[in-house]
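Entry type: protein chain
Record version: 2
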Amino acid sequence: MGRKVGLQTVELLTKPRLIATYTVVGPKEGEGPLKDNFDEILEDDLCGCKTFESAESKMQLHVVQEVLKKAHLKEQDISYVFAGDLINQLMPSCFMAREVDIPFLGLYGACSTFIEALSLASICLEADIGNHMMAVSSSHFSSSERQFRVPLEMGSQRAPSSQWTVTGAAAVVLAKKGNNVPRVTHITLGKVKDYGITDPNEMGAAMAPAAVDTIKQHFQDTGRKPNDYDIIVSGDLGSVGKQITTELLKEYGYNIGSNYIDCGDEIFDCKSQSTNCGGSGAGCSATVMSSMIYKGMIQKKYKKVLLIATGALLSTISNYQGETIPGIAHAIALEFGGE
């Protein structure tokens, strides 16, 4: 069984394995610098559906079906699927779940959902309540844009600090056993932090304090340092949030600049693709971490990795009422290899 380390971290003694991943992204993501890492690139972001929400659900179902093939498993082999997205009442995830014969737990952590799902799936395996779990997360530019910002038909100008919601979905199968695959060694669950940001176009600034708090706590709990990891990866802070995070961590004595990247900063070429500060969304960290980072570990480019996914916990109602934007960040540490 796992054990508590410090204030917010759990050390997993059985080291749950990430035995298979599958990613699908939209056409714009498929034109970006990471295009060769994804399993599948859509030609049509509607996926043949009538609505963008239905398209996102179809993406989720597709990655679930494909990752099962990769893992050589059936639906009945999965004890629980932990899935989430950004849409009200988790419509894409719930509609995916009605098509599969797997017990379902719907999660909402905004853009931190992917690491939240991996964390809970890992804890369940550590508790020996199943042999296989699945984590799924997705987002869609068009469905998120009209829910949180403005209808696409308005064609409004985007703020320089805004980010582009990633159209993409990823699924990961976790298992108690598996050789030569990434293993989850530590989980650091974050606290909600709110530094008074009210502008929904300032997601990076709203989430950065939560990222800083969780990363700092992870280092304090484990006694590790930034250079203990081959790479430190945040989910979707974008260029602005990444810079804030780097500078604030320096004030706590942690210099992560040499081995730190952000998925939102990597997935697009911000200048040529006009995505301003980069990518965001529950599908951003999910697709990048399940493709480029996962493959990097399989290819032994990275042995130790720290993944942090951040979420801006606003809603359309809270935004209209002038509330500030709370942020959350969760982290997991991965190591490659071993039986």
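Comment: The chain has two domains: 17-175, 182-336.
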